[in-house]
Specification:
Length: about 200
């Protein structure tokens, strides 16, 4: 009888009490709450790094395209018009082909990693109000090749700008992150981020 009682007590002590289980669940919930923002930041940082890598590939592709054709490309994704994917397909505006084209200049189609499904556009910009400071001398430069990424909220856009220009601390005046350096907010599309790739 005494032996059976001891065995019964031993089996009971192998499990957790309700209070212990509640304590464990509470600790896990607190840790998850603390870790979640760090996980999302790490995901965003990796997407920004991949976007910067993509921008470097585009810059190289533009240089090769210009060397072959003597003109500046236009490339848009998702594709709107057949002639707006000139870094991958030899299609000129108005039909026909581009003389000297020796692509494809990109290994894969561009993808907006920061806002999946939204537009990315590579184009030649000559308008004064879309100028960036490509050479870093503090003066905006006209005639640049642009990579425009649409539909970015301020937090993502600011982090992207900071990764390129290291200007997160600039929040007001002419040196604000959204108007200075190689990365800036678009004038005609305020929700877009413009990355100036090179002077032309």
């Amino acid at each position: 009888m005494n032996e059976n009682w001891r065995e019964s007590v031993r089996r009971t002590q192998l499990g957790f009490t309700l209070m212990e289980m509640i304590g464990v669940v509470a600790v896990v919930a607190i840790l998850a709450t603390m870790a979640t923002p760090m996980i999302f930041k790490a995901i965003q940082d990796s997407r920004i790094s991949a976007t910067l890598q993509q921008a470097r590939q585009v810059e190289t592709a533009i240089a090769r395209f210009y060397a072959d054709t003597g003109r500046w490309p236009i490339h848009r994704t998702p594709i709107m018009n057949p002639h707006e994917r000139q870094l991958i397909a030899n299609t000129a505006e108005g039909g026909g082909t581009i003389p000297g084209w020796d692509g494809p200049y990109l290994d894969a189609e561009l993808r907006n990693l920061l806002t999946p499904g939204s537009e990315m556009l590579v184009y030649h910009e000559t308008r004064d109000n879309e100028k960036c400071d490509v050479d870093g001398d503090g003066t905006p430069d006209a005639n640049t090749m642009i990579l425009r990424i649409n539909d970015l909220d301020d937090d993502v856009a600011r982090n992207l700008s900071d990764a390129i220009d290291n200007d997160f601390q600039n929040t007001s005046g002419t040196a604000a992150w959204d108007v200075a350096g190689r990365a800036r907010r678009g004038v005609f599309r305020p929700n877009a981020m413009i990355i100036c790739l090179s002077q032309t």
